[in-house]
Amino acid sequence: MKKIVALFALAAVTISSCKKSDLQLNNPNSPTPTEALTAQKGIENFALGMWNKLYVGNNLLAHTLVMHSIMGDEQFSSVGNFGWRYVNQTDYITIPAPYNRKIRNPLELSQPAQLKALNTLPATNGSATNAIVYEWNMAYYVNGQANLLLQTLNAGVVTLPATEKAVLTAWAYWWKGFAYSRIGSMYVSGVITNSTDGSTSPVYVDRNAIINEANSNFDKAAAALTPIAASDAVYATTMNIIIPTFNRTNPMVSPAMWVRGINTLKARNLMVNKKVSQMTAADWATVKTLTSAGLIAGDRTFVLGMDPGGVNDLTPNSQQHPYGWNSNKNNPGWVFPSERWIQDFKAGDQRFTKGVTAFAANEVVQNRSSRGLQYGTRYYLTAIENGGYWSTNNRSGQVQFAGSYEENALMLAEANIRTGDLSGGLALIDQVRTANGAGLSAVAGAGLSQAQALEELRSERRIALTYRGLAFYDARRWNITAPVSAGGGRANANVVVPNSVIGTTPAAGWTLLPCLIEYNYMDYWDVPVTEFSYNVPDPSSAPIVAN
Fold it and tell me: Closest Cα to residue 82, out of 334, 315, 305, 328?
């Protein structure tokens, strides 16, 4: 067992109400617990401190969600900070007739080659352009915190009310399940560790074993929650202690909601980690079983919000939150809605009407910073406080990063459609659109073919699940991110093409054209250099780099 204390960061938190100081752990280089873990209040605040593991130097969950969004072509980012521009570095864009031009990205490197080249210590510690490290760090920070919480609870040094101990146990196991889900769904391999002393294992296991570990931890969380009644006052009190005000929901996440949310996440773990072509009848049956016991309309899950004053939360500035990055007022130029996402809205969708605003003609973005044709758009996102959904100028809104009713319904819809129950699947799509106020005509009973039903499903996932960390997973499993030679890419994809590229006038203008985009993205990332440089793989380990 080699110690990797730089990636562990455990200690006790101060004892006070839900303030920023609650979420700051002392001395990240000392994994030894202090006296706080020998008192009830200390244990409670340590559990609250789980949220701080999402923010170590930067809001790691926010970075994760942004990168998944831009790799899934919901949005784009041309900035090099945090390696963002490199994760959505498409390989080729082919402009249609009569221009017939095939244009490679200006760096002339595929995304896999680019990301591998940046998975170095200088690109991590110097230029901070190694995009691969952020999600890994987030997951293992969280896992380490959960391990120590479990050790403390199991040691029995402090006698807690039975319900409170059950809630805190479920809390630790849920976060471990979440952490391993992120690792297994994004990296070729990972480490399974229950260590509480800052050490880790040199035995790397493949992503499937990591997903199995995630589901095992989810099951342990569900087992701890199942006996708890919705009316249990200790449950409510404990939840209000471990969830800060800016991340609370109304109604509160009940024990039953929490368990249903676990079923939704287990269904996600199965669906997003197989290409559609690899899914078997048994797989779809499992998805149906899990989603039938998953989240329902009105359920709440864990969310990432903001404090309106910017004082007592994990977003200390106008960035550090997915909706903050999207602010065209406060953070112009960081991220923009993709034209490919825009074209997935159906005509008349009120979510487009309310959530998207057109740039003035002279503000349309084209080939931003001369870094690629995919970096162009006619739109920006309307702020939540102005009636929108995915952006804020004043720290409003909560991101549903931990599953949702919409995700669960659309997974069940897809399982139904792909196994022949078109009417059942389309009815679920209609239900999601109604719940979201889309204002679209029903598609159930409209006589759609399976191919047409799947297109409704695809476009609805693109819109209803925006910015929930799912866009890249979908593009991967639908094979869109694969090379064109392997059946990948997106045809008839709208691109804002500068007129100077196609030789039309005015030269400073642009033309929206249906192009063929060849993404050629990595399916699963290599293990970050910050792990394997200090934790050399045992010879028995699974491969730590993707082919």
Answer: 334
Q: Name the amino acid, one letter, at 144.
A: G
CB 371 within 8 A of CB 76: no
- Which helix (H) or strand (E) is 435 found in, with range? helix 422-435
Q: What is the pLDDT of residues 444-492, one digit of tens each?
A: 999 999 999 999 999 999 999 999 999 999 999 999 999 999 999 999 9
Type and span of the H or E element at 95? strand 92-95
Helical ranges in 201-344 per DSSP H: 207-225, 233-242, 255-271, 281-292, 322-325, 339-342
Contacts 24+ apart (CB under 8 A), 505-511: 510/364, 510/366, 510/376
At 58 the three-state DSSP class reads: strand
**By C-alpha distance, which of 496, 319, 292 is closest to 392?**
319
Query: Which amino acid, residue 321?
Result: H
SS (H, E, C) 442-468: CCCCCCCCHHHHHHHHHHHHHHHCCCC
Token digits for 335? 């991220």
* Residue 42 near residue 35, CB atoms below 8 Å: yes
**Spatial distance between the Cα atoms of 348 and 437, rounded to a whole number of angstroms:** 11
Round to whole Å and give the CA distance between 88 and 75: 9
Q: Which residues of the chain have pLDDT under 70?
A: 1-35
Q: Which two tokens stand for residue 355?
A: 């959530």
Whole-structure pTM value: 0.94
Any idea what DSSP says for residue 525?
A: B
Cis peptide, bond prior to residue 506, ω within 30 of zero? yes
What are the backbone angles phi and psi of residue 214, rounded to the nearest 5°?
A: -60, -50
The 3-state secondary structure of 239-273 reads HHHHCCHHHCCCCCCCHHHHHHHHHHHHHHHHHCC
Q: Which residues contact 424 (CB under 8 A, 6 or more apart)?
A: 413, 416
